[in-house]
Amino acid sequence: MTDLLLRNVRPMGGPASDVLVRGGRIATPGADATGTAVEDGQGMLLLPAFVEGHTHLDKTTFHLPDWLVNEVGPRIEDKIDSEREWRARTGHDAGVASLAMARAFLAAGTTRIRSHVDVDTSGGTKHVEGVLATREAMRGLQEIQLVAFPQSGILGRQGTETLLDAAIAMGADIVGGLDPCAIERDPVRHLDIVFGLADKHGKPVDIHLHEPGTMGAFSLDLILERTRALGMEGKVVVSHAFCLGDIPERDRDALLARMASLRVAIATTAPASRPVPLVAPCRAAGVAIFGGNDGVRDTWTPYGSPDMLERAMLIGLRNNFRRDDEVAIAFDCVAAAGAKGCGFADYGLEPGARADLVLVEARSLAEAVVTRPARRLVVSGGRIVARDGALVA
Q1: Cα radius of gyration (the chain)
Q2: CA distance 331 to 379
Protein backbone atom coordinates (compact mmCIF):
# COMPACT_ATOMS: atom_id res chain seq x y z
CA MET A 1 0.00 0.00 0.00
CA THR A 2 1.45 3.34 -1.05
CA ASP A 3 -1.57 5.58 -0.32
CA LEU A 4 -1.64 7.02 3.18
CA LEU A 5 -3.11 9.96 5.08
CA LEU A 6 -1.08 11.27 8.01
CA ARG A 7 -3.40 13.33 10.19
CA ASN A 8 -2.34 15.99 12.66
CA VAL A 9 1.40 16.10 11.98
CA ARG A 10 3.78 19.07 12.12
CA PRO A 11 6.09 19.12 9.06
CA MET A 12 9.55 20.33 10.19
CA GLY A 13 7.94 21.63 13.39
CA GLY A 14 5.45 23.90 11.67
CA PRO A 15 1.70 24.12 12.28
CA ALA A 16 -0.30 20.92 12.52
CA SER A 17 -1.68 19.71 9.21
CA ASP A 18 -2.60 16.59 7.27
CA VAL A 19 -0.22 15.08 4.71
CA LEU A 20 -1.63 12.87 1.99
CA VAL A 21 0.40 10.29 0.10
CA ARG A 22 -0.78 9.01 -3.28
CA GLY A 23 1.07 6.39 -5.28
CA GLY A 24 4.06 6.63 -2.97
CA ARG A 25 4.46 10.39 -3.40
CA ILE A 26 3.36 13.42 -1.40
CA ALA A 27 0.13 14.72 -2.85
CA THR A 28 -0.94 18.31 -3.41
CA PRO A 29 -2.76 19.76 -0.38
CA GLY A 30 -6.52 19.44 -0.77
CA ALA A 31 -6.38 16.30 -2.91
CA ASP A 32 -9.16 13.78 -2.37
CA ALA A 33 -8.30 11.40 0.47
CA THR A 34 -11.41 9.23 0.21
CA GLY A 35 -10.76 5.59 0.99
CA THR A 36 -7.16 6.18 2.09
CA ALA A 37 -5.68 4.46 5.14
CA VAL A 38 -5.26 6.93 8.00
CA GLU A 39 -2.53 7.27 10.63
CA ASP A 40 -3.07 9.67 13.52
CA GLY A 41 0.13 11.64 13.96
CA GLN A 42 -0.97 12.99 17.37
CA GLY A 43 0.77 16.30 16.72
CA MET A 44 4.17 14.68 16.25
CA LEU A 45 7.06 16.19 14.29
CA LEU A 46 7.17 15.07 10.65
CA LEU A 47 10.59 14.90 9.02
CA PRO A 48 11.82 13.76 5.63
CA ALA A 49 13.58 10.41 5.97
CA PHE A 50 17.32 10.69 6.50
CA VAL A 51 20.26 10.39 4.14
CA GLU A 52 23.46 8.53 5.08
CA GLY A 53 25.98 10.16 2.74
CA HIS A 54 29.16 8.29 3.62
CA THR A 55 29.34 4.86 5.21
CA HIS A 56 30.87 1.42 4.67
CA LEU A 57 28.09 -1.17 4.85
CA ASP A 58 30.45 -3.98 3.89
CA LYS A 59 32.82 -3.45 6.84
CA THR A 60 30.48 -3.41 9.82
CA THR A 61 30.47 -5.87 12.70
CA PHE A 62 27.31 -4.28 14.10
CA HIS A 63 25.34 -7.50 13.55
CA LEU A 64 27.79 -9.83 15.29
CA PRO A 65 27.02 -11.11 18.81
CA ASP A 66 30.58 -10.67 20.10
CA TRP A 67 32.37 -7.38 20.67
CA LEU A 68 35.35 -6.89 18.37
CA VAL A 69 38.41 -6.07 20.45
CA ASN A 70 40.23 -3.24 18.63
CA GLU A 71 44.03 -3.22 18.95
CA VAL A 72 44.85 -1.52 15.64
CA GLY A 73 47.78 0.89 15.25
CA PRO A 74 47.38 4.66 14.85
CA ARG A 75 48.19 5.12 11.14
CA ILE A 76 45.69 4.79 8.30
CA GLU A 77 48.00 2.17 6.79
CA ASP A 78 47.76 0.18 10.05
CA LYS A 79 43.99 0.19 9.83
CA ILE A 80 43.97 -0.82 6.16
CA ASP A 81 46.33 -3.75 6.75
CA SER A 82 44.58 -4.88 9.94
CA GLU A 83 41.18 -4.88 8.29
CA ARG A 84 42.36 -6.83 5.26
CA GLU A 85 43.97 -9.47 7.52
CA TRP A 86 40.88 -9.70 9.75
CA ARG A 87 38.54 -10.17 6.83
CA ALA A 88 40.66 -12.95 5.38
CA ARG A 89 41.01 -14.68 8.74
CA THR A 90 37.34 -14.54 9.73
CA GLY A 91 35.71 -14.95 6.32
CA HIS A 92 33.70 -11.79 6.95
CA ASP A 93 30.51 -11.88 4.83
CA ALA A 94 29.85 -8.42 3.38
CA GLY A 95 26.41 -9.46 2.18
CA VAL A 96 25.18 -10.52 5.61
CA ALA A 97 26.82 -7.55 7.31
CA SER A 98 25.52 -4.94 4.88
CA LEU A 99 21.95 -6.28 4.92
CA ALA A 100 21.79 -6.18 8.71
CA MET A 101 23.20 -2.66 8.73
CA ALA A 102 20.88 -1.43 5.97
CA ARG A 103 17.86 -2.77 7.87
CA ALA A 104 19.02 -1.06 11.06
CA PHE A 105 19.36 2.23 9.17
CA LEU A 106 15.84 1.81 7.75
CA ALA A 107 14.31 1.12 11.15
CA ALA A 108 15.87 4.37 12.39
CA GLY A 109 14.51 6.38 9.46
CA THR A 110 17.21 6.33 6.76
CA THR A 111 15.98 5.52 3.26
CA ARG A 112 18.98 6.74 1.19
CA ILE A 113 22.54 5.50 1.65
CA ARG A 114 25.86 6.00 -0.13
CA SER A 115 28.17 3.13 0.80
CA HIS A 116 31.83 2.82 -0.10
CA VAL A 117 32.62 -0.85 -0.75
CA ASP A 118 36.14 -2.27 -0.75
CA VAL A 119 37.70 -3.55 -3.95
CA ASP A 120 41.20 -5.00 -3.70
CA THR A 121 43.38 -7.88 -4.80
CA SER A 122 42.67 -9.85 -1.60
CA GLY A 123 38.88 -9.79 -1.75
CA GLY A 124 38.44 -9.03 -5.44
CA THR A 125 34.88 -7.86 -6.05
CA LYS A 126 33.15 -10.16 -3.55
CA HIS A 127 32.34 -7.30 -1.17
CA VAL A 128 30.68 -5.42 -4.03
CA GLU A 129 28.72 -8.56 -4.87
CA GLY A 130 27.52 -8.75 -1.25
CA VAL A 131 26.36 -5.15 -1.11
CA LEU A 132 24.74 -5.41 -4.54
CA ALA A 133 22.69 -8.29 -3.12
CA THR A 134 21.71 -6.06 -0.21
CA ARG A 135 20.71 -3.28 -2.59
CA GLU A 136 18.47 -5.71 -4.44
CA ALA A 137 16.96 -7.04 -1.20
CA MET A 138 16.15 -3.47 -0.08
CA ARG A 139 14.87 -2.30 -3.47
CA GLY A 140 11.70 -0.24 -3.09
CA LEU A 141 12.41 0.37 0.59
CA GLN A 142 15.85 1.96 0.49
CA GLU A 143 17.98 3.50 -2.24
CA ILE A 144 21.62 2.41 -1.92
CA GLN A 145 24.49 3.84 -3.98
CA LEU A 146 27.71 1.83 -4.19
CA VAL A 147 31.14 3.41 -4.49
CA ALA A 148 33.78 0.99 -5.82
CA PHE A 149 36.44 1.92 -3.28
CA PRO A 150 40.16 0.99 -3.49
CA GLN A 151 40.75 0.96 0.27
CA SER A 152 44.19 -0.63 -0.08
CA GLY A 153 45.19 1.71 -2.89
CA ILE A 154 45.50 1.11 -6.62
CA LEU A 155 49.11 1.63 -7.59
CA GLY A 156 50.74 -0.60 -4.99
CA ARG A 157 48.50 -3.60 -5.67
CA GLN A 158 48.68 -4.61 -9.31
CA GLY A 159 45.31 -5.64 -10.69
CA THR A 160 43.19 -3.27 -8.61
CA GLU A 161 42.42 -1.03 -11.57
CA THR A 162 41.00 -4.03 -13.46
CA LEU A 163 38.92 -4.99 -10.42
CA LEU A 164 37.53 -1.47 -10.10
CA ASP A 165 36.59 -1.58 -13.78
CA ALA A 166 34.81 -4.89 -13.18
CA ALA A 167 33.00 -3.56 -10.09
CA ILE A 168 31.59 -0.65 -12.07
CA ALA A 169 30.51 -3.01 -14.85
CA MET A 170 28.78 -5.20 -12.22
CA GLY A 171 26.63 -2.32 -11.04
CA ALA A 172 28.61 -0.04 -8.70
CA ASP A 173 27.45 3.53 -9.21
CA ILE A 174 30.52 5.63 -8.40
CA VAL A 175 34.30 5.40 -8.83
CA GLY A 176 36.20 5.79 -5.57
CA GLY A 177 39.69 7.06 -4.86
CA LEU A 178 42.01 7.39 -1.89
CA ASP A 179 44.71 9.83 -0.72
CA PRO A 180 46.58 10.42 -4.00
CA CYS A 181 49.77 11.56 -2.23
CA ALA A 182 49.88 9.96 1.23
CA ILE A 183 48.80 6.45 0.24
CA GLU A 184 49.41 6.27 -3.50
CA ARG A 185 52.54 8.50 -3.63
CA ASP A 186 51.80 9.34 -7.26
CA PRO A 187 48.80 11.66 -7.39
CA VAL A 188 48.85 12.17 -11.14
CA ARG A 189 48.80 8.47 -11.92
CA HIS A 190 46.17 7.75 -9.28
CA LEU A 191 43.84 10.46 -10.59
CA ASP A 192 44.50 9.33 -14.17
CA ILE A 193 43.05 5.95 -13.23
CA VAL A 194 40.13 7.17 -11.11
CA PHE A 195 38.95 9.84 -13.52
CA GLY A 196 39.75 7.60 -16.49
CA LEU A 197 37.39 4.92 -15.16
CA ALA A 198 34.75 7.55 -14.45
CA ASP A 199 35.06 8.88 -17.99
CA LYS A 200 34.95 5.39 -19.49
CA HIS A 201 31.78 4.37 -17.65
CA GLY A 202 30.11 7.78 -17.41
CA LYS A 203 30.12 7.62 -13.60
CA PRO A 204 30.68 10.18 -10.85
CA VAL A 205 33.68 10.18 -8.50
CA ASP A 206 33.98 10.14 -4.69
CA ILE A 207 37.53 10.40 -3.30
CA HIS A 208 38.59 9.83 0.32
CA LEU A 209 40.97 12.67 1.15
CA HIS A 210 42.44 12.22 4.64
CA GLU A 211 45.62 14.13 3.78
CA PRO A 212 46.35 17.09 6.08
CA GLY A 213 47.43 20.66 5.40
CA THR A 214 49.32 21.60 2.28
CA MET A 215 49.58 17.99 1.10
CA GLY A 216 45.79 17.64 1.11
CA ALA A 217 45.36 21.07 -0.48
CA PHE A 218 47.73 20.01 -3.28
CA SER A 219 45.73 16.83 -3.91
CA LEU A 220 42.47 18.77 -3.79
CA ASP A 221 43.84 21.25 -6.33
CA LEU A 222 44.60 18.34 -8.70
CA ILE A 223 41.11 16.87 -8.17
CA LEU A 224 39.51 20.21 -9.02
CA GLU A 225 41.65 20.59 -12.11
CA ARG A 226 40.60 17.11 -13.33
CA THR A 227 36.99 17.95 -12.63
CA ARG A 228 37.23 21.09 -14.77
CA ALA A 229 39.21 19.48 -17.58
CA LEU A 230 36.79 16.56 -17.96
CA GLY A 231 33.63 18.64 -17.60
CA MET A 232 32.57 16.73 -14.47
CA GLU A 233 30.95 19.67 -12.71
CA GLY A 234 28.42 18.39 -10.19
CA LYS A 235 29.75 14.83 -10.38
CA VAL A 236 32.57 14.84 -7.82
CA VAL A 237 32.51 14.44 -4.03
CA VAL A 238 35.53 14.81 -1.78
CA SER A 239 35.04 12.80 1.41
CA HIS A 240 36.56 14.03 4.68
CA ALA A 241 38.65 16.85 3.13
CA PHE A 242 40.48 17.30 6.43
CA CYS A 243 42.90 19.71 4.80
CA LEU A 244 40.17 22.35 4.59
CA GLY A 245 40.24 22.56 8.37
CA ASP A 246 44.03 22.61 8.48
CA ILE A 247 45.15 25.44 6.17
CA PRO A 248 44.97 29.26 6.44
CA GLU A 249 41.50 30.71 5.87
CA ARG A 250 42.67 32.58 2.77
CA ASP A 251 43.83 29.36 1.11
CA ARG A 252 40.73 27.52 2.30
CA ASP A 253 38.39 30.14 0.89
CA ALA A 254 40.16 30.09 -2.48
CA LEU A 255 39.68 26.31 -2.71
CA LEU A 256 36.06 26.59 -1.59
CA ALA A 257 35.38 29.18 -4.29
CA ARG A 258 36.72 26.79 -6.92
CA MET A 259 34.72 23.90 -5.47
CA ALA A 260 31.56 25.98 -5.61
CA SER A 261 32.14 26.94 -9.24
CA LEU A 262 32.68 23.26 -10.16
CA ARG A 263 29.89 22.06 -7.85
CA VAL A 264 32.22 19.70 -6.04
CA ALA A 265 30.61 18.56 -2.78
CA ILE A 266 32.08 17.53 0.57
CA ALA A 267 31.10 14.56 2.70
CA THR A 268 32.00 15.01 6.36
CA THR A 269 31.79 12.75 9.39
CA ALA A 270 32.79 15.64 11.69
CA PRO A 271 35.19 13.59 13.85
CA ALA A 272 36.43 15.19 17.04
CA SER A 273 39.96 13.90 16.52
CA ARG A 274 40.88 15.71 13.30
CA PRO A 275 40.64 19.19 11.76
CA VAL A 276 37.52 19.21 9.60
CA PRO A 277 35.93 21.41 6.95
CA LEU A 278 33.55 23.61 8.93
CA VAL A 279 29.97 23.60 7.71
CA ALA A 280 29.23 27.34 7.90
CA PRO A 281 32.14 28.54 5.68
CA CYS A 282 31.40 25.79 3.15
CA ARG A 283 27.75 26.75 2.91
CA ALA A 284 28.60 30.45 2.78
CA ALA A 285 30.87 29.72 -0.19
CA GLY A 286 28.11 27.79 -1.94
CA VAL A 287 29.68 24.35 -1.43
CA ALA A 288 27.31 21.48 -0.66
CA ILE A 289 28.46 19.72 2.51
CA PHE A 290 26.66 16.69 3.90
CA GLY A 291 27.11 14.08 6.59
CA GLY A 292 27.77 10.41 7.18
CA ASN A 293 29.00 8.01 9.83
CA ASP A 294 31.98 6.58 7.95
CA GLY A 295 32.44 3.11 9.49
CA VAL A 296 29.97 1.80 12.05
CA ARG A 297 31.54 -0.60 14.57
CA ASP A 298 34.20 -2.12 12.36
CA THR A 299 37.92 -2.86 12.59
CA TRP A 300 38.67 0.84 12.21
CA THR A 301 36.46 2.13 15.00
CA PRO A 302 34.13 0.92 17.76
CA TYR A 303 31.96 4.00 17.30
CA GLY A 304 29.08 4.85 15.00
CA SER A 305 25.37 4.18 14.89
CA PRO A 306 22.67 3.69 12.25
CA ASP A 307 20.90 6.74 13.74
CA MET A 308 21.40 9.77 11.51
CA LEU A 309 19.90 12.09 14.12
CA GLU A 310 22.91 11.15 16.24
CA ARG A 311 25.24 12.01 13.38
CA ALA A 312 23.47 15.36 12.96
CA MET A 313 24.02 16.00 16.67
CA LEU A 314 27.74 15.17 16.33
CA ILE A 315 28.04 17.50 13.33
CA GLY A 316 26.36 20.21 15.38
CA LEU A 317 28.72 19.67 18.30
CA ARG A 318 31.84 19.67 16.10
CA ASN A 319 30.73 22.94 14.49
CA ASN A 320 29.69 24.59 17.76
CA PHE A 321 26.09 24.90 16.57
CA ARG A 322 23.98 25.98 19.54
CA ARG A 323 21.07 28.09 18.27
CA ASP A 324 18.03 26.21 17.02
CA ASP A 325 18.54 27.58 13.52
CA GLU A 326 22.13 26.32 13.59
CA VAL A 327 21.06 22.86 14.76
CA ALA A 328 18.68 22.86 11.79
CA ILE A 329 21.74 23.24 9.54
CA ALA A 330 23.28 20.17 11.18
CA PHE A 331 20.09 18.26 10.41
CA ASP A 332 20.18 19.47 6.82
CA CYS A 333 23.55 17.71 6.48
CA VAL A 334 21.77 14.35 6.90
CA ALA A 335 18.71 15.41 4.96
CA ALA A 336 18.34 17.72 1.93
CA ALA A 337 22.07 18.52 1.64
CA GLY A 338 22.83 14.79 1.67
CA ALA A 339 20.28 14.14 -1.06
CA LYS A 340 21.71 16.96 -3.17
CA GLY A 341 25.34 16.01 -2.62
CA CYS A 342 24.76 12.34 -3.46
CA GLY A 343 22.32 13.00 -6.27
CA PHE A 344 19.27 11.33 -4.73
CA ALA A 345 16.21 12.61 -6.58
CA ASP A 346 12.69 13.48 -5.46
CA TYR A 347 13.63 14.22 -1.86
CA GLY A 348 11.77 16.30 0.71
CA LEU A 349 8.32 17.17 1.97
CA GLU A 350 7.07 19.06 -1.07
CA PRO A 351 4.25 17.75 -3.28
CA GLY A 352 5.64 15.30 -5.83
CA ALA A 353 8.51 14.15 -3.62
CA ARG A 354 8.85 10.47 -2.82
CA ALA A 355 7.01 9.87 0.46
CA ASP A 356 9.96 8.91 2.65
CA LEU A 357 8.91 10.20 6.06
CA VAL A 358 9.68 9.92 9.77
CA LEU A 359 7.47 10.76 12.75
CA VAL A 360 9.06 11.55 16.13
CA GLU A 361 7.78 12.93 19.41
CA ALA A 362 9.55 16.28 19.61
CA ARG A 363 8.42 19.89 19.79
CA SER A 364 11.02 21.17 17.37
CA LEU A 365 13.66 20.05 14.91
CA ALA A 366 16.43 21.05 17.33
CA GLU A 367 14.88 18.94 20.09
CA ALA A 368 14.71 15.95 17.74
CA VAL A 369 18.42 16.28 16.89
CA VAL A 370 19.52 16.72 20.49
CA THR A 371 17.29 14.11 22.17
CA ARG A 372 17.07 11.62 19.27
CA PRO A 373 13.63 10.28 20.22
CA ALA A 374 12.30 6.93 19.08
CA ARG A 375 11.06 6.81 15.51
CA ARG A 376 7.33 6.33 16.02
CA LEU A 377 6.74 5.77 12.32
CA VAL A 378 8.97 5.36 9.28
CA VAL A 379 7.42 5.53 5.82
CA SER A 380 9.26 4.60 2.62
CA GLY A 381 7.62 5.31 -0.71
CA GLY A 382 4.28 5.66 1.04
CA ARG A 383 4.62 2.30 2.77
CA ILE A 384 4.92 2.00 6.56
CA VAL A 385 8.14 0.10 7.14
CA ALA A 386 8.86 0.63 10.85
CA ARG A 387 7.05 1.45 14.07
CA ASP A 388 8.65 2.42 17.35
CA GLY A 389 12.13 1.69 16.05
CA ALA A 390 11.37 -1.81 14.76
CA LEU A 391 10.80 -2.94 11.18
CA VAL A 392 7.32 -4.23 10.36
CA ALA A 393 6.73 -7.32 8.24
Answers
A1: 21
A2: 19
